[in-house]
Specification:
The complex is a heterodimer of chains A (about 120) and B (about 110).
Chain A (H helix, E strand, L loop, with lengths): L4 E3 L2 E4 L5 E6 L6 E7 L5 E8 L2 E5 L7 E4 L6 E5 L8 E8 L11 E2 L3 E5 L1
Parallel strand pairs in A: 2-11
Antiparallel strand pairs in A: 1-3, 3-8, 4-5, 4-9, 5-6, 7-8, 9-10, 9-11
Chain B lengths: L8 E5 L4 E6 L9 E6 L6 E6 L4 E2 L4 E4 L5 E6 L8 E7 L15 E6 L1
Parallel strand pairs in B: 1-9
Antiparallel strand pairs in B: 2-7, 3-4, 3-8, 5-6, 6-7, 8-9
């Protein structure tokens, strides 16, 4: 069964450093998302991406964040200068379409646990 | 904020049916009800979704009331591995995409 994969599973970094989180969405999916979950808190939407551009972003997704689809398979989230409060689980998701059909279901990856020291 | 209301926790005996309720009284006519679950800190796992008809798949059944203001997720024979946080989500639309707004969900504890 196709699944979303994410690397690395864990990342430890120093405050102020740049990190890149990687995701490989399901192969025929066209819509990609990043969510995050701070320990003990809700899963929060960060950004959605379609056709090589951002479709929607939340207030959390400020200038320190960027997303990219550098090739036909990877989807990345970059945090330019990490802060302590960026420590969280980051989940990538993908969906086949985003319209109001059954194919809009989002499938999530296992997550990357980011710890900023 | 999430547009759904769920009990914070529920218990269920192993082998019995788990019935998880969700209130979504402000749902619009063309919004879907989705159910996901999250086992420990793993990625949310899709379970089932519906618009107005009842739905069933290999994991669960979804019963939506006729007025669509509430729904119930049914796990017919709960196992210990079904212990998780279950999220009921009404989809919202922004531009061309469909962000999911997660609430705090229901922590289902399946007891041996």
């Amino acid at each position: 069964e196709p699944e979303v994969t994410q690397t690395p599973s864990h990342q430890v970094t120093q405050m102020g450093q740049e990190v890149i989180l990687r995701c490989v969405p399901i192969s025929n999916h066209l819509y990609f998302y990043w969510y995050r979950q701070i320990l003990g808190q809700k899963v929060e939407f960060l950004v959605s991406f379609y056709n090589n551009e951002i479709s929607e972003k939340s207030e959390i997704f400020d200038d320190q964040f960027s997303v990219e689809r550098p090739d036909g398979s990877n989807f990345t989230l970059k945090i330019r200068s990490t802060k302590l409060e960026d420590s969280a689980m980051y989940f990538c998701a993908s969906s086949e379409v985003a319209r109001r059909t059954s194919r809009e279901t989002q499938y999530f990856g296992p997550g990357t646990r980011l710890l900023v020291l | 904020d999430a547009k759904t209301t769920q009990p914070p926790s529920m218990d269920c005996a192993e082998g019995r049916a788990a019935n998880l309720p969700c209130n979504h009284s402000t749902i619009s006519g063309n919004e879907y009800v989705y159910w996901y679950r999250q086992i420990h800190s793993q990625g949310p796992q899709y379970i089932i979704h519906g618009l107005k008809n009842n739905e069933t798949n290999e994991m669960a059944s979804l019963i939506i009331t006729e007025d669509r203001k509430s729904s119930t997720l049914i796990l017919p024979h709960a196992t210990l591995r079904d212990t998780a946080v279950y999220y009921c989500i009404v989809t919202v639309y922004g531009g061309a995409t469909n962000k999911l707004i997660f609430g705090t969900g229901t922590l289902l504890a399946v007891q041996p």
